[in-house]
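(Structure overview)
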Amino acid sequence: MAGLRARRGPAPGLLALSALGFCLMLQVSAKRLPKTPPCPPSCSCTRDTAFCVDSKAVPRNLPSEVISLTLVNAAFSEIHDGAFSHLPLLQFLLLNSNKFTLIGDNAFTGLSHLQYLDLRGNSLNCDCKVKWLVEWLAHTNTTVAPIYCASPPRFQEHKVQDLPLREFDCITTDFVLYQTLSFPAVSAEPFLYSSDLYLALAQPGVSACTILKWDYVERQLRDYDRIPAPSAVHCKPMVVDSQLYVVVAQLFGGSYIYHWDPNTTRFTKLQDIDPQRVRKPNDLEAFRIDGDWYFAVADSSKAGATSLYRWHQNGFYSHQALHPWHRDTDLEFVDGEGKPRLIVSSSSQAPVIYQWSRTQKQFVAQGEVTQVPDAQAVKHFRAGRDSYLCLSRYIGDSKILRWEGTRFSEVQALPSRGSLALQPFLVGGRRYLALGSDFSFTQIYQWDEGRQKFVRFQELAVQAPRAFCYMPAGDAQLLLAPSFKGQTLVYRHVVVDLSA
């Protein structure tokens, strides 16, 4: 036993080195172990695939390496814009047999590697919201199984891929309230002067013709000046030889012409309008014939006469008396086919058409619009090669008439009890008609080119309008509705893309 030697243990330094090496090996091994990929509770995932059932939305926390995604029995019906952009490597997207009714604009944006898409079995509503999808399907390299429309009825069971883009009428328009002018008015006339845009309003309630100026920065109408006018019914601006004049027609106290003096920056009275000739003015129309400026005043009294005035050197002078003692209500100047005409409407007889005689330099009575026994307002417009008249009536239907070469024929009757004002106007190729009433809201109609008629488009809450006025102001297309009983409202015409 004495010869046996005691076995010696490892040196302390060697044990420390061994322990350190073991720890390093564990750390290296831990780094090399694959991480479990993220996966939502409703999905089964591998590193590059995901199969999801009953998901309430497109899963967000999926592995970024996923190349195949399947959604089954999804608990949502709309796929929103860019819904899969967080999966840029996606190659296979299986969305078939779900309840998707809407696929948002550019839902598949960012999927540059997408090879296969099966949207079959979904109840797609093929309205303007899928127009982008029809365009995308026509240009994508992705293989897409046939998709069928569930609605609307005219597209039911049609392949989305086969829908013609021309079938999607996705642009609509609207008139939205833009500005409220907190006062009544009975006429509105926009005008340009020294490169600025203005608006003249007749406001008998505040005894003035109010001049507003368009603020291009704030994009609003702002107060600018006022012309005293205790019983104003119409304020007509005219720019003649770079000089600004405003004809102020009043029911009482006489009518006048004012001139804007740029040196004193104020309006000064230029001349009176003969009170024996114009007793009860109701409308003003200004126009130019063969280089000469004229304005006409419709007189609604029994004793007065609708009269024509001509500019000469330094003032307006009486030129012709038209249509005496007929209670005229409105005037419309029409310059078509090189034959200037003036149409005079009356509450006591059919509208009368006057044609300008260049030899006599006067208007000569041409005939009556016999289809309408009386009219409160008369306006005209052209559509294609045809000329039309619009006539509003206080009792009975308003009328749309078309000129047939030798006479007018009725095209359409519009219900309009209590109407004193109507106005056709054109905005960006779209033709509208505003028709007011003292007993109901204002109706906006849109011209249907195919049917050659106006169809009801929109209702505006305007009380007792006395005029309508279209005013382009920069990129804002405005419709003004002066009201006798309430505030003067300014509406903006907006274009809405339903496919966006």
In short: Residues 1-9, 14-26 have pLDDT under 50 and may be disordered. The domain at 170-185+369-499 is CATH 2.130.10.10 (Methylamine Dehydrogenase; Chain H). The CA atoms of residues 125 and 151 lie 5 Å apart.
